[in-house]
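INSTRUCTION: Work out how this chain folds

Fields: amino acid sequence; protein backbone structure tokens

Chain under study, with its fold:
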Amino acid sequence: AIEKGGYYNIVGLIDDFAEVGIIKHGYQILGGQREIPELYRQYGEPFIFIAVGDNTSRKRIYSENEGYGYPPIIHPTASIGKGTRIMAGAFIAAGAVVNSNSIVGKFTIVNTCASLDHDSKLMDFASMNPQSATGGRVFIGEKTTIGMEIGRAHV
């Protein structure tokens, strides 16, 4: 979504579990979380995106790194309704639908082809798995995960 959107230039990845300098997903590992303050200064106060699926871990990483710029990331094929508010650090994937007057909280995930219907609230650090859907006027609490019908199938 970051690459497809074309709004940001990815300078590298921050990963506590990978060796600095290696290439991962086509990008160089710049360091771990401890290096964020220095990297932030070095790259002229860039935006940061927390690409972690686990809601609790995403919240912990953010709480350890507050004060930086965290834009929402929206895939160009996502459909966003009129009057919708999308907060800092949110991720809306390819084919996702967020209908009118909904709120997508901070550091949330609306994954591939998920649908958050009208006047709904997806609270901070919550997530919707691929192809999950809600009706209108639904409240999804902080750090909640809305699952999908089938996660892995063996045929």
